[in-house]
Amino acid sequence: MDARKSPATNGQQIRLHVLRYNPADPASVPRMQTYELEQTEGMTLFIALSEIREKQDPSLQFDFVCRAGICGSCAMIVNGRPTLACRTLTNEVGPDITLAPLPFFELLCDLSVDTGTWMRGMSERVHGWLHMKDRKPDLSRVEEAMDPDLADKIYELDRCIECGCCVAACGTARMREDFVGAVGLNRVARFRLDPRDARTDADYYDVIGDDDGIFGCMSLLACHDVCPKELPLETQIAFLRRKMVKMGFQRREWSDSATRPLDSAHVTRIPVTGSTRGPEKG
After folding, report:
1. Considering only CA atoms, which of 226, 125, 212 is closest in space to residue 177?
2. pLDDT digit string (tens) for 164-184?
3. Which of 129, 174, 162 is nearest to 231 (CA)?
C-alpha cells in the first residue's frame, strides 16, 4: 500500500497541505503551504489546525464554534471531499492531508468561507419558517399534541446544521448560482411535514417548482453522500419531486380549464389572480 494513503499512527508525523489565499490582500496569491506535526491519540483536524495556529502559524485562518459537529462552521474540503474538521480524525485521513475551503461560497481567507449570507438568502427564498395557521395564537393555552412518529420525522430533517457540505458537493449549484440546494429542499420538506404550517403543495410549487428548485436537481446525490449528519436527502428530494410534478400537472389542468367555456355541467374553481393556492376543495 502507498505510504501516503495508509492511516497515520500515534507518534507519527503527519503533513497538512493547506490552500492559502487572502482575497482581501492584493499581494496574496493562491498557494499550498505544508505544516508538519505529531499525530496524537484522538486528534481531529480541528485539533491539528488549532495546534498549527497556536504553535506554528498564527496567520492561518479557519472557522469553528462548537467543536462537536453541531454548528457546521468548520466545514472544508478534506482530501477532495466536503466534511467537518471537528469530526474528522487525522489517523483516518493521514498521514498526508490536503485541505481547501468549500467551493461555491464567498472565500474570506484560507479555509474560512461565508456560508451565512448564502444560507440567509436561501431561507428567504424558500420561506424557511413556520407559517402558522392561526395568525394570532393563544400562547397561554396548552400546546396541541403531535403524533410521536410525525414529530420524529420532523426532528430528523431539523437536524440539518447548514454546514454547506451538500452545496459544495452539488453539480447543479456549480452551474446555477440561484439553486437552493439540498439544504433548501430539505427545509421545504421539513415544513411540509409540519401540521402547524398553513401552506399547501401549491404554495411550495411557487417556491421550488422551477430549475432553481426541485427540477434543477440532476439526481447526482453527492449531497446525500457527504452530509455529515447523514440526513435522508435522497429520499426527501425524490419525494418532493414527485409531489411537485403532480402539482405541475394540476396547474396545467387548471389553466386548460380556464380557457374552456363554462357550462352548468362542468364548473371548475380557478385560483384568484396572485394567489399561491390551488382550487378549493369542494
Report:
1. 212
2. 999 999 999 989 989 999 999
3. 162
Pick left, alpha or beta for residue 94 (phi over 0 → left; psi -120 to 50 → alpha; otherwise beta): beta
pTM of the model: 0.82
Phi, psi of 265 (to 5 degrees): -90, -20
Q: Which amino acid is at 151?
A: A
- Alpha-carbon dihedral 252, 258, 260, 263, rounded to 10 degrees: 130
Instruction: Identify the burial level of 98 via C-beta atoms within 10 angstroms of its C-beta, where 0-12 means exposed, 13-18 middle and 19 or more buried.
Output: middle
**143 backbone φψ class: left, alpha, beta (φ>0; ψ -120 to 50):** beta
Q: Position of cell 355541467?
A: 265
Q: All 3 cell numbers of residue 197?
A: 404550517
Q: Tell me which amino acid residue 6 is.
A: S
**CA distance linking residue 26 with residue 1, whole number of Å:** 43
Sign of the alpha-carbon torsion through 249, 251, 252, 256: positive
Mean pLDDT of 141-163: 92
Q: Write 25-28 long-range contacts (CB < 8 A, 24+).
A: none
The separation between the first and the last C-alpha atoms of the chain, rounded to the nearest angstrom, is 69
| CB of 246 closer than 8 Å to CB of 202 | no
Are 224 and 233 contacting, i.e. CB atoms less than 8 angstroms apart? yes
Indicate the burial class of 79 (C-beta count within 10 angstroms; 0-12, 13-18, 19 or more).
Answer: middle
Angle at 19 between CA 16 and CA 20, to 5 degrees: 115
- Across 98-118, average pLDDT: 96
Domains of the chain: 13-113 (3.10.20.30), 127-132+144-258 (1.10.1060.10)
DSSP string for residues in 168-211: HT-HHHHH-TT--HHHHHHHHHHHHH-TTB---HHHHHHHHSST
